[in-house]
Amino acid sequence: MKFKMNSLAILTAATLISTQVLANEWQGEANDAWLDGKLETALLLNTQLNNFKIDTDIKSNTAILTGEVNNETQKELAGEIARNIEGISTVKNNLTVNADYRNDDDDASFSRTWNDMTVTAGLKIEFATKDELDDTDISVSTDNGVVTLKGNVNTEAEKDLATEMARGYDKVVEVNDELVVKN
Known about the structure:
By secondary structure, this protein is α/β, with parallel strands linked by helices. It is 46% helix and 23% strand.
């Protein structure tokens, strides 16, 4: 079994390394598709933009951005992200700025949702592995970096520990402590 795991790890690493090398050799539509994927990913991971409202197209190493954004800053940011993708030589930023545009999905961007899920999962794991919190029943939820702790703990010390662990966790902006001491 150890041999299979090592082989799998080597195969995965070789694939990731060779994909980048091969991508540098790709030409035409294959290269444009590779660049478009890189640009879509970069926009997806940016917390200031909703990539679902920005359309991208790559033609001969030129990025074409279309769609609608709230302000000039968002337009410039999207263009700058495209310019920073290795392999993109030109950016045609055709994004439309509409001050009245209200994107209902702004608060639910992929990167924010991903960060919230990561914080929730990470805190649950940390609580589960902390000996001092063994006999507690703590529920964790995260929304836009705000962590809410609910449930029962045995002592004030357990309550304080859980709250401080959450406050110190990466990407947490605030902690709502709704924990109840059983006694």
